[in-house]
Write a structure and sequence with these properties.
The complex is a heterodimer. Chain A is of the alpha/beta class. In chain A, 27% of the residues lie in helices and 29% in strands. Chain A has helices spanning 41-57, 72-75, 77-81, 99-113, 133-141, 194-202, 249-262, and strands at residues 2-7, 9-10, 21-23, 28-30, 38-39, 60-66, 85-89, 118-122, 145-155, 158-164, 168-175, 178-182, 206-208, 227-233, 242-243. Chain A has a nine-stranded mixed β-sheet, with helices on both faces. In chain A, a hairpin with a 3-residue loop joins strand 10 (158-164) and strand 11. Chain A is globular, with a radius of gyration of 22 Å. Chain A starts with a strand and ends with a helix. Chain B is of the alpha/beta class. Helices cover 28% and strands 27% of the residues of chain B. In chain B, the strands form four sheets. Chain B has a seven-stranded parallel β-sheet with strand order 7-11-6-1-4-5-12, sandwiched between helices. In chain B, strands 15-14-16-17-18 form a five-stranded parallel β-sheet. The relative contact order of chain B is 0.11. The model of chain B has no long low-confidence stretch (mean pLDDT 95). The chains are: A alpha/beta, B alpha/beta. Strand 14 (227-233) of chain A pairs antiparallel with strand 10 of chain B, so a sheet runs across the interface.
């Protein structure tokens, strides 16, 4: 079982909302100086799913990432968690792409890797939250896509997936190869082991540019994008909260209930 | 460009009727169609759905394309992408709208990539740019810390719209419209996946998405046992219990209770937020609530920025007397 996992480096989504800033001129998020980027938590769920399958059926896990200014201590985390290989699409031409051009570059890189049974992605990424790249790769490779997976099992040459629905979940079977987008219900990602961290230190990622994966630079990154970001802004919330104050919590609780009654909310 | 006109929405059918999300999408599309002075069309796909065409017209559509096929009975990406992309290449709409439901999250990007165009997912606002006449697609990004506005030069311009943002139109049974049957053009071998089983989530009481009142707890609740006090309050108010991600991940409540970017999106009349700080990801799921009432011991908690009423304090000392008083007031 050869598994490819798409991972991403993102602005730390757990950073306090007050640390989030935008540069209005470049229409980009400003990296907070004191909060380093992290491996996307959604990517980590996909990695966890891949490593669980490797534990069960053997095989190899290759992580692949497209991005800019990829910090090695961040982007090598898949290796320290147990991935076997790491491939980076790191080139000026790949930057500022949309879901379309990113999925295109990743699918061409996956074609170059050649041998794969399963491709896993996070259900979305914690920065743009678009949730498109998995479906895009499947479309470009012309293989089935299953989104919002909460459990994955392999049997013979097929894979059985529990997929979240609005009503609960459904069990779907798909032949391989296939692309599966993984949701957080899959289970907490494992911590890197000391052995894993040591192995990751010794291992250097493979870096590919557009020529390496056989694409024109004009088809990837910003140049290959189908959608255009017109504006990025931070909505303002004017906190107009009416605080119920009292001498004791009990009195505050009673006042709140009475206030809600007065406003006909209950 | 002039080849492309009209708004087409993909109207989801659930349990033999038009879904709530479809009604909302028709309302959203109606506004855009009126702005552009174009027609609002809807596609319904499924098995035994022809009878729903008049409902779609009553809900706001000028034209309904009906795609009957037993192969479309349950959503499967392969089937829906093939059937819909063929229909849409024929219809050539200016704008195509899809609901950002569990199905839509799979369908919208797959359909866009198949047609070589872009889609903006999870839109919370759609408008027509007065100068370019392009669709301005606004969506939260960075875990809802920011909003982004996108356009595209591709056609159709595709957007997936977040549920509970647009209010459905009042049904007007006197509305007239055109009904057109179209072929799904599908064969069994087009569908590579197979649904083995559908498992609805067991639940008691009101459905979270439909509840007028939601009582939600966060990490600060502390245990499954403590969540019972919130369940008691929800039951008193004929509401439902929700949660942020940590209580779900810790197994204190079912995963299906999760509210936020990766959980349910709700818009109740009353949202009682107990011992939850209000991370952007969580706010993303409940910001549509009409009245947020927050109880948190941290005066700086982000949830207070969204709340109409608040108490700063330990929920364990507040909820029991609050429940007791509510009981008195309701008796």
């Amino acid at each position: 079982m050869n598994i490819i996992v798409c991972v991403k480096q993102v602005v730390d989504p757990e950073a306090p909302p007050s640390s989030f800033k935008i540069n209005a001129e470049s229409n980009k998020a400003v990296l907070p100086a004191d909060i380093p980027p992290v491996l996307d938590p959604y990517s980590e769920y996909a990695l966890e799913a891949a490593l669980k399958l490797k534990d069960a059926c053997g095989g190899s896990v290759t992580a692949i990432s497209l991005g800019e200014n990829l910090l090695r201590e961040v982007i090598k985390k898949p290796l320290s968690m147990g991935a076997d290989e790491l491939i980076l699409l790191e080139d000026e031409a790949f930057t500022d792409g949309d879901s379309f051009s990113t999925a295109y570059a990743l699918s061409m890189a996956i074609k170059k890797i050649g041998s794969y049974d399963l491709i896993l992605c996070g259900r979305q990424s914690a920065d743009w939250d678009a949730g498109q790249v998995g479906s895009g790769i499947a479309s470009m490779l012309d293989i089935p896509a299953i989104t919002l997976a909460r459990k994955i099992e392999i049997s013979d040459n097929a894979v059985k997936v529990e997929r979240l629905t609005d009503e609960g979940y459904e069990v779907i079977e798909t032949p391989l190869p296939a692309v599966i987008s993984v949701s957080n219900e899959i289970g907490e990602p494992r911590y890197p082991t000391v052995r894993g961290i040591m192995a990751a230190k010794r291992k250097e990622p493979t870096v590919w540019n557009p020529v390496d994966i056989g694409v024109e630079p004009s088809c990837v990154g910003a140049a290959g994008s189908r959608s255009r970001l017109v504006k990025l802004f931070q909505p303002v919330h004017d906190g107009k909260c009416e605080f119920i104050e009292a001498d004791s919590p009990e009195e505050a609780a009673v006042s709140l209930a009475d206030r809600l009654k007065q406003e006909k909310l209950i | 460009m002039s080849d492309y006109k009209d708004i087409v929405i993909v109207a989801e059918v659930k349990n033999g009727s038009l879904s709530a999300a479809a009604h909302e999408l028709l309302s959203c599309g109606r506004g855009l169609a009126d702005d552009l002075q174009e027609e609002l069309c809807a596609i319904i796909a499924g098995k035994d759905i022809t009878g729903l065409a008049q409902d779609v017209i009553a809900a706001g559509a000028d034209k309904v394309y009906v795609m009957e096929s037993p192969l479309l009975e349950h959503y499967q990406t392969d089937a829906y992408v093939k059937a819909l992309s063929q229909a849409i290449e024929e219809i050539k709409p200016n704008i195509l709208l899809i609901s950002q439901t569990a199905e839509g999250r799979g369908l919208a990007p797959a359909l866009a990539f198949k047609m070589g165009t872009a889609v903006t997912t999870d839109c919370v606002e759609l408008a027509i740019d007065p100068d370019s006449r392009k669709l301005l697609q606004t969506r939260p990004v960075y875990g809802s810390n920011a909003m982004a506005v996108f356009t595209t030069d591709c056609h159709p311009q595709i957007a997936a719209v977040r549920p509970k943002v647009y209010s459905p139109l009042e049904a007007d049974d006197s509305r007239q419209g055109e009904v057109i049957n179209i072929e799904a053009g599908l064969q069994e071998c087009d569908i590579r996946t197979k649904i083995i089983e559908q498992v609805p989530q067991a639940r008691e009481g009101v459905r979270l998405e439909d509840a007028e009142t939601v009582v939600a707890g966060g990490r600060g609740i502390g245990s499954a046992e403590d969540f019972k006090q919130l369940e008691e309050l929800a039951a008193l108010l004929n509401g439902a219990v929700g949660a942020t991600r940590p209580p779900c991940d810790n197994g204190w409540v079912a995963d299906s209770a999760q509210i936020g970017l990766t959980g349910k999106i709700i818009a109740p009349e009353i949202y009682l937020a107990v011992a939850l700080s209000g991370s952007s990801q969580h706010i993303s799921g409940c910001s549509g609530a009409k009245n947020i009432i927050a109880i948190n011991k941290d005066a700086e908690a982000n949830i207070f920025n969204f709340a109409r009423f608040g108490i700063i304090g330990d929920w364990k000392k507040i909820i029991p007397p609050f429940n007791a008083r509510i009981k008195e007031l309701l008796d």
